[in-house]
Design brief:
Strand content: 25-35%
Structural class: alpha+beta
Number of domains: 2
Helix content: 25-40%
Radius of gyration: 16 Å
Distance between the termini: 23 Å
Order of helices and strands: EEEEHHEEEHH
Number of strands: 7
Length: 107
């Protein structure tokens, strides 16, 4: 399971050889790095956010990776659906969009 960390603070956070820069793309970390005491402290303080890829689901045509859907915005979810050719039907609110995405991977 891949783990990613995003800096949600206003300043650069440096831990070991990792520099977490605000506004930068999420950074993949190992299990050991994710459990580093300083990183755990910053996550608890809300300055870093840890996201784990939840599952890989094979569809008839391709393999699709489902990330932490709850942490995505409505616009990100819609983009994810378009990228993965998922029909959202009439879903417009976050919970309904997530349900449609999850339902599409069960078939």
């Amino acid at each position: 399971m891949a783990k990613y960390i995003t800096n949600t603070s206003l300043g650069i956070i440096s831990i070991g050889d990792k520099n977490f820069i605000p506004g930068a793309a999420r950074m993949e970390v190992t299990d050991a790095e994710a459990s580093h005491p300083a990183i755990v402290k910053y996550i608890a303080a809300g300055k870093l956010k840890l996201v784990e890829e939840v599952a890989t689901v094979a569809t008839a045509a391709t393999a699709t990776t489902i990330t932490d859907l709850d942490s995505m915005t409505v616009d990100q979810l819609k983009a994810y659906a378009i990228e993965n050719k998922i029909d959202l039907g009439t879903a417009t609110v976050k919970a309904d969009i997530i349900a449609a995405i999850k339902a599409s991977t069960k078939s």
